[in-house]
Amino acid sequence: MPKVYLGLGTNLGCKAQNLKDAIDLIALNLGEVCEVSSTYVSEPWGFESKNEFLNLVLLLDTNLSPTELLVQTQNLEQRLGRTSKATADYVDRLIDIDILLYDDLTIDSPNLKIPHPLMLKRDFVLVPLSQIAPQLLHPTLEKTMLELKCELVKA
């Protein structure tokens, strides 16, 4: 079964409950949740807001293809109260689910990019990801998540 790393974030409402609800729905609908990082508090990234984010990364075993997984994660976001991602601007949100890595695949299509193109710039991704998968190699950079996190912290 493919191993997928998902990044989850929320900065509205009961944030801890939003993450728990998302994990429960992922486990129920998308596959087996094998591991979950601790939560990571971060400032909004790419926009200004008074609301801090609560983030985590999880490891998922799934039978879904990358495209099916994208559709299903977007459906779960909507079920959990997320409004459309159609805008290019970042906004406050109840839940955000990003596909970070899907096995060692590289996908560059208009609707789906794997590895997630911004993950290397985001501490709220690399810190929890390196917690649960420190020796995991990035599929194109051939560096571990721990190495990538250390490089981000030094930058």
Fold and architecture overview:
With 155 residues, this protein is α+β, with helices and mostly antiparallel strands. The protein has a single domain (3-154), classed as 7,8-Dihydro-6-hydroxymethylpterin-pyrophosphokinase HPPK (Alpha-Beta Plaits, 2-Layer Sandwich), CATH 3.30.70. It is 32% helix and 23% strand. The chain contains 4 helices and 7 strands. Strands 1, 2, 3, 4 and 5 form a 5-stranded antiparallel beta sheet that branches. α1 (15-29) packs across α2 and α3 runs antiparallel to α4 (145-154). The protein is globular. The N and C termini lie far apart (36 Å). The model has no long low-confidence stretch (mean pLDDT 93).
> What Rg do the Cα atoms give?
14 Å
By CATH reckoning, the class would read Alpha Beta
Would you tell me the overall average pLDDT?
A: 93
- What gross morphology would you assign? globular
What sequence of helices (H) and strands (E) makes up the elements?
EHEEEHEEEHH
CATH superfamily: 7,8-Dihydro-6-hydroxymethylpterin-pyrophosphokinase HPPK
Q: Structural class of the helices, strands and pairings?
A: alpha+beta
Count of all domains = 1
Instruction: Bin the helical content.
Output: 25-40%
Low-confidence stretches: none
CATH-defined topology: Alpha-Beta Plaits
| Contiguous helical run count | 4
Quantity of strands, as a count: 7
Q: Which band does the percent of strand residues land in?
A: 15-25%
Q: What is the CATH architecture term?
A: 2-Layer Sandwich
Q: Report the major sheet.
A: 5 strands, antiparallel
Cα-to-Cα separation, first versus last residue: 36 Å
